Structures are given as structure tokens and as C-alpha cells.
Amino acid sequence: MPGPERIEVTFNSGARTRCVIESGALERLPELCAEVGLSGTAGFLCDARLVFAQGPLVKALGDRFGGVLARPVSEKHKSLAEVEAMCETLNARGVMRDGFVVALGGGVLTDLAGLAAALHLRGVPWVSGPTTLLAQVDAGLGGKTGANLRAGKNLVGAFHQPTLVVCDPRVLKTLPERERWSGLAEVVKCALLAPQQDALGEALLTRCERDLEAAARGDEAALSGLIFGAVKLKATVVSGDEREGDGPLAPGQLPRAALNLGHTVGHALETATHYERFTHGEAVALGLRSAIELSRLRGHVHDSDAARMQTLVRRLQVLAPNKLTPLEREAALVAMQKDKKARAGQVRFVLLNSSGGVVVERVEAADCGRALDAALD
Ligand code: GLY
């Protein structure tokens, strides 16, 4: 079985996060918390679905942390009311400034519990134990916590870095295969960005090309290697641009906005289909096709690099039908124009660059249509 991997991340703000990637690590969560100096009263917040899917683990951790609050979690629960309920529980449980919050669940639970930790007593430390592949390679690390408003997703939140992130590939084995494919889209996104970072070279891209299907089947060694590479990439990006664009970047540093690669079209597809047809990863997988094609059309990536990238991206399984009705296509184009990062009718795309780094470019409406078609052909 793969051994433990640790990544220590230090942020511009001085915050520090330890990431542990290890099969079975969640069973040792209390010890791992103690190793980073967290030993006061814990508020253990967990996705209610885990009570069934990971019953023994949740019970054992509940016993060690002195109780568990299982919350029903889905995108429709991602509200400030849910954060308030979590804060009431932390208060009732007596979690003080020397205590901490433990979040066990997918991306929604992670974002909500992180926000509750940011708000409780104006901020207590927190630990993230992401239990989906998507959350292990994205929401777990980087400190973007948040909730939805009626007007849109993630419109309220705070940056609050977790002290510890524990990624345990073993808990991913009980997920449906479609969920693992969804997370793999974010891994492949990191792999496309990784060669742009000198320190990481091509290792993650090559590993994806070798291990993608094995990881989708739930192979722990394949998953561990890919999670390590993706978390390492994300750590390198977020440590140098903690709050996304609030200061100068070091030479060669990827901006945090690079993590939105594939998300302009991805979000538009999710919005146009009311978040019901595609998993997030499926939408990102389709969005990556667009980003690669636009990067090629605009001369940022060589044809041969683009072909290699498209070959990998097209191995990501998209189980949802990827044809849009004319109305849905129109809705997707409108969603791109309304993207919270769009300005004056021009949509912002993160594009790849064969000679290193990424290019963030404003794209006119006609090219948005071409980008969308590239995702769906
Ligand atoms: N999910 C993108 C980021 O953390 O910036």
C-alpha cells in the first residue's frame, strides 16, 4: 500500500497547512490533529451520507472527538442558515478559541464547515477531511470557504486556511465510479497546468496518462499518486497567490486564477442545464476541451501539445449526454456573459501556453460560441 506523503504549505499571510495523503489516514485523524498542535475541544461536523457509507469510521471518530454533528448536505443546503446551525452546535459543544473544527465530507460540507470555523468566535482552527476525490484535490486545500445566496453560488465566504488536510484514498473506493471520474477531471486540469510549473515538470501529466482508468476503478495506489500530484500543484499555486490577485506574483508563479482552467465553459454548461445533467467534473472535462482548442486557435499552444492534451482530456468519461438543445446552448452563452468574472460583454478564459505559464484572455462572443462547440463535438 502506498506510504504517507506530506506536503507542508506556507502562505503569504503566514498561515500554514499540512496535507497528508495516505491510505487509512482518516482512521488516525485525532493523532494527526495532535501532531499539528490541535488538542482542545473539537467540533466534529460530518456529511450525513457518511453515516451510512463510512459508518465505522464516523463512529470511531465521533467517539474520539466526543460526538458528531451529521448534517444533510447537498448544493441546496449550502446556505448561511446551515452555517448558522453549525455555529450553534460549535457553541453548544463548548468549542473555544483553543479548540478546533473537524470537517468530514465532500466539497459542500467542506466549504460550509470551513466558513463556520472562520465565523465561530471570529475564527478557530479547522481540519479538512475531504471524502470525495473532487474535494481532496480542490476544496480541501486553499482556504476558500463559502455558501450560496439566492443570486448565485459561493457569493458569501471567507478565506480561512485549514491547519490540516487529510486525503485518504481508501474512502474513495465506496464512491460511485462516476464520482471518481468527476474528481479526475480536476486532476487532469492540474496535470495540464503542471508542466507550466518548472518544479513539477511533466510528472503529473505522465502519471495521468498512465493511471487514469485505474484511478477511476478505485485503485488506491493510482489514486494516491494522482492526488499527491494534484495537491502539490494546488499547493504551489495557492501558496504564492493566497487571495487570488491581491499582490505581485513571483517570477514563474501561476496565478490562482489558473485553477479556473476549463471552468468558464464548465460553469456555463452547469448553469444551462440547472446543475442537473452534468457532474461538476463532467462539465469541467468538457470545458477543458474548449480551453485547449481556444489556446490552440489563438496560437498559445502548438498543435502537437494540443493533440496530446485533447487525447488525455477525452479519456475522461462524461456519462451525461453532451448535446445541448438550441435553448440550452443559448442559455450557456448567456451564462458565460454573466460569469462573475466577465467584463463589458467579454468573457474571461484561462488559456494554456506551450512556452510556460497561462494566459488569461478576454474572449468575444463569437469565439465563446466556437469554444462551446469545441466542448460538445
Ligand atoms: N477552486 C479554485 C481555488 O481554490 O482557487
Explained architecture:
The chain is of the alpha/beta class. The termini are far apart. Strands 1-2-9-6-5-3-4 form a 7-stranded mixed beta sheet, with helices on both faces. Strands 7-8 form a two-stranded antiparallel sheet. It contains 14 helices and 11 strands. It has 2 domains: 5-174, 3-Layer(aba) Sandwich (Rossmann fold); 261-377, Dehydroquinate synthase-like - alpha domain (Dehydroquinate synthase-like, alpha domain). Helices cover 46% and strands 16% of the residues. Glycine binds next to loops.
Keywords for this structure?
14 helices; globular; Rossmann fold; alpha/beta; Dehydroquinate synthase-like, alpha domain; seven-stranded mixed β-sheet; 377 residues; two-stranded antiparallel ribbon; 11 strands; binds glycine; 16% strand
Number of helices: 14
Bound ligands, each once: glycine
Spatial extent as radius of gyration = 20 Å
Give the % helix: 40-55%
**Domain count:** 2
CATH C-level name of the largest domain: Alpha Beta
Q: Strand portion, in percent?
A: 15-25%
User: End-to-end span in angstroms?
Assistant: 40 Å
CATH T-level topology of the largest domain: Rossmann fold
